[in-house]
Amino acid sequence: MDTGSPFFGLLLCVAVCSVTFAKECGMSVYYRFDCYPEAGSNQGNCEARGCCWDDSKEYGDVGIPYCFYPTDYEMYQISGPVDTDFGCTANLTRSQPSYYPDTIKDLKLDIYYETKTRLHFKIYDATQKRYEVPIDTPKVTHKASETDYSVLFPSYGFGFGVTRKSTDLPIFNTSVNNGGFLFNDQFIQISTILASNYIYGLGEHRGSLLRSPNWSRFTFGIPTILLILMPLSTVPIRFTLDWSRPTATPTVCFSLTVMLWAIIQPAPAITFRTIGGILDFYIFLGPTPSDVIQQYLEVIGQPFLPPYWGLGFHLCRWGYKSANRTQEIVNRMRAARIPQDTQWNDIDYMQSHEDFTTDSKSFSNLPDVVADLHNHKQHYISMIDPAISSSQPAGSYAPYDDGVKADVFVKDANGKILVGKVWPGNTAFPDFFKPETSGWWNTQLKGFHSQVQFDGVWLDMNEPSNFVDGSFEGCPGNSTLDNPPYLPSLTHGTLYGKTLCPSSQQAISSHYNLHNMFGISEVMVTNKVISQLRGKRPFIISRSTFPSSGVYGGHWLGDNYSKWPDMHYSITGILNFNMFGIPLVGADICGFNDNTNEELCVRWHQLGAFYPFSRNHNSLTCGPKLCIDQDPGAWSSASQDIIRDALTTRYLLLPYLYTLFAEAHINGSTVARPLFFEFPHDPYTYAVDRQFLWGSSLLISPVLDPGAQTIKVTLPAGTWYDFYNGSAISISTTANVTLDAPMEKINLHMREGGILPLQQPNTTTYVSRQGGFELRAAICSKTGTAEGSLYWDDGDTIGTYENGEYIFLKFSLASNTFVSKVVHNKYKDAGDMVLSKVTLYGVAKDPKSVTVNGKAAHYSYVSEVGTLKVSGLYTPMNDTITVKWNA
Ligand SMILES: *[C@@H]1O[C@H](CO)[C@@H](O)[C@H](O)[C@H]1NC(C)=O
Ligand SMILES: *[C@@H]1O[C@H](CO)[C@@H](O)[C@H](O)[C@H]1NC(C)=O
Q: Which parts of the chain are coiled coil (predicted)?
């Protein structure tokens, strides 16, 4: 019976499948890798992909996939590897197309053994060149003579494993045969087993620092670092890792501009998906978290050294509405004697929101405000948006006319200038990858600078943001760039939602490929232009970032809300961007959207005083009304006192902060860092994100809850000195400690063994830089030692470190002797640097005498807390200083 055979055939298939399912689909649910990540999966379309179906497990919003790869899922077969000069290479081939279009069947895998602790691998089309990220990374042609890792290939299927030689522990393993390695033109997917579920990084997110391994999904505009803490000892069995020996931190940097998604699942494992380009990964072996970041930044570049004034306090809002009001705000800061280095304006200073203009009525006197700031040795920052108004009558708006002439704008798929809509109305978008664009941008910024002498720029809207989807005319519906075969859930539903058409054309590639680099391309060009224009260090804050952005500018965490949880999550943002190589980062103090309140705003200033980039910024409207003022001068005098104290403490600490920025610039260390960076052996620190450190020596514990008068903090084992008065807390094992935190106090602790360089604070960095220095030491309770350093230069000249025009001091303390030694000195004004005070925390006994450079010195001793203060000094710092005390 012919008619029966299809039916029979179907039955047979199901029977066969269910038999095999029992074997090949029976892995632990934690090892189920999602075979149908799109919406709308069902048993039929799942099995059509050759995958297993099981909807009996709880799924939830995100969770255990219903449709998952069997362990014998068809995959690429590896041939090779063969050794090469740089490491090894292998071919990957697949006989059948996969279920997404345009399967690339022949791939090449190159593994570069770049340094002892850095492995780099690329997987790409063996026959055709594909898009690769245009950032400078080291080109390595010869493998390192010695490596801490070894690479192992499986006998069957796709993948390879990287293990740490010293422990034989796997740190990366793509040989998960049911991970579904796919490489199609617009869908690439790779999974790896991870050795631990202590996972950090993965782009800009509002949430906790420690990422949940429990089926978390991440979408990045910003492909970025993944940091994994793992033990350096024993076999990693899930949940029973032995953390008793030093930990190690392998990490992966994924550099692709095209959209990237990641899913972490409890195996633990991670899956990366992207819609173009190639796979380009680095693995860094650390072994410490700090080592990993340093190794990462050796690849993408160390951060720039900001001008000293840029570390002062910044004030901004959208909606001052006039230059006069802006001046009034500055005046009330001065009247209240609250530190401020920089005043900003948002787009309301512009005429009809057009770049390089000032509103002819309310901001016509902006140049006077800027001149007044400069007379007070303060600085001014202008917002500049990338989108250029395109609908002015010809001859009336030079930025557009010149741009058309120089041919700088992004084109649509048909080669016409793409027109979108941003603040000024219809706009064109500069292609900063075009060489012509930097000359044009230079002309515009120069012309504007001749009217308004800004000292830095704020680059907003460079995601790039667009108020219409794609362009005024939408996007060509037939382009697979605009509508790729696979998309995960996106905020605006499509790739072109509230941005440019991916099919639009830029000089070096399609916008599809370059989308995530729009921001960095603007920052790179702007950095060059304003460095030349001002002849001083550039100060740029950008909304959009990419690996390497920190080389050219800083970042703020975007439009947050005036809410307590936003204040808490800002700490995660600050710590993440320090790991990403962009240490100059801050969140809007008091919150941007919605009205703040006095308690929140005061607490937020206490925290924000310790953002590496410290700025209060507010929105225009809150609901139907204007937002209330939230600048420090808007509050009661009691609140002003507290804010002044917090910011003055920041200014006191600026030499330490600046030294940390110099170290970041020189060797890629972090400025603000999580506790686990300093205590990698201590699992109690791994999830801490309500406290953080500046460098290795200053612990910051802000209040993050309304009404709190005390806080519970995590203190790692050891002695912690109250920054303000030196009272010590000594604990033998890491503990939660409850501290007093009245409204007027932010808890700051010095870690034992550290020495902080401080300087008499004032209301601007210009004045505070002329004050006497103080060196404050927290003596190690066990060894009686401490150490620290100071990097100092004129704070504004470009290339001081590279040209050697700086002074570097090393401080050490042992056997009741404190020494400041000059390690390098080519700073021309080093003779003006004067030490006025030495403060020592942890001096057990009242000294009989104290000498400075051999001469008896004036001192005081507070026995209750063991603090020795040597003051009234006037000792030049460009020579060795020795302070001794007799116990
Ligand atoms: C990879 O394929 C190329 C081209 O077919 C071939 O020349 C080469 O020998 C292969 N390499 C390996 C390691 O199999
Ligand atoms: C990688 O994982 C596979 C599958 O779990 C396993 O067979 C292989 O031994 C692992 N390789 C390494 C280097 O850990």
A: none
Alpha carbon nearest to ligand 1 atom 8, residue: 91
Q: What is the pLDDT of residue 237?
A: 33
As given in the structure block, the two tokens for residue 306 are 């900001």
Residue carrying structure tokens 């292998």: 90
Pairing mode, strands 198-201 and 225-231: antiparallel
Which residues form the catalytic set? 460, 463
8-state DSSP, 64: S
Ligand 1 atom at shortest distance from the alpha carbon of 106? 2
Look at ligand 2, atom 12, and give the residue with the nearest C-alpha.
161
Q: What letter does residue 751 receive in the DSSP assignment? A: E
Secondary structure (3-state) at 640: helix
What whole-number distance in Å separates Cα of residue 755 and Cα of residue 740? 25
User: What separation in Å is there between the alpha carbon of 65 and the centre of ligand 2?
Assistant: 23
Q: How far is the C-alpha of 884 from the C-alpha of 581, rounded, in Å? A: 40
How many helices (H) and strands (E) would you count in the chain?
14, 53
Ligand 1 atom with the smallest distance to the CA of 80 is 13
Residues with CB under 6 A from ligand 1: 79-80, 82, 90-91
- CA dist 353 and 427 (Å) reads 11
Q: Which of 61, 60, 67 is nearest to 29 (CA)?
A: 67
The string of pLDDT tens digits covering residues 29-83 is 899 999 999 889 999 999 999 999 998 876 554 588 999 999 888 889 899 899 9
Class of domain 660-687+700-750: mainly beta
Q: Which atom of ligand 1 lies nearest, measured to the CA of 89?
A: 13
77-122 residue pLDDT tens: 899 899 999 999 999 999 999 999 999 999 999 999 999 999 999 9
- Ligand in closest contact with the CA of 151: 2
For the CA of 91, the nearest atom of ligand 1 = 1
Ligand number with the minimum distance to the CA of 89:
1
Among 173, 181, 230, name the best residue to mutate to test ligand 2's pocket (greatest count of ligand atoms within 8 A of Cβ): 173
CA pair distance 300, 68, nearest whole angstrom: 36
Q: Ligand nearest 127 Cα, by number?
A: 1
**CB-ligand 2 contact for 170 (6 Å cutoff):** yes
Fold observed for domain 772-886: Immunoglobulin-like (2.60.40)
pLDDT tens track for 320-364: 999 999 999 999 999 999 999 999 999 999 999 999 999 999 999
Q: Do domains 660-687+700-750 and 772-886 have the same CATH topology?
A: yes
Task: Tell me if 196 CB under 6 Å of ligand 2.
Answer: no
Q: Comparing C-alpha atoms, which of 151, 125, 119 is closest to residue 138?
A: 119
- Per DSSP (E only), the strands in 166-325 are 169-173, 182-184, 187-193, 198-201, 216-220, 225-231, 247-248, 251-254, 260-265, 269-274, 279-284, 313-315
| Ligand 2 and 173: CB distance under 6 A | yes
527 lines ligand 2 (CB under 6 A): no
- Nearest listed ligand to the Cα of residue 174: 2
The domain defined by 11-287 carries CATH number 3.60.15.10: no
Q: Hey, whose CA ends up nearest to atom 3 of ligand 1?
A: 91
Q: Output the CA–CA distances (angstroms, integers) from residue 635 to 336, 380, 599, in the order listed.
A: 11, 23, 10
- The CB-side HSE value for 884 (13 A sphere, CA atoms) comes to 8
Question: How confident is the model over 186-235, as pLDDT tens digits?
Answer: 999 999 988 788 888 887 888 899 988 888 887 765 545 666 665 544 33
Distance CA 67, CA 99 (A): 14
DSSP 415-443: SSBP-EEETTEEEE-B-TTSHHHHHHHHH
Q: Give the distance (Å) from ligand 2 centre to CA of residue 175.
A: 6
Domain locations along the chain: 11-287, 388-453+465-519, 660-687+700-750, 772-886
Tell how far the Cα of 91 is from the centroid of ligand 1, in angstroms: 6
In the reported structure, the alpha carbon of residue 172 is separated from the centroid of ligand 2 by a whole-number distance in angstroms of: 9
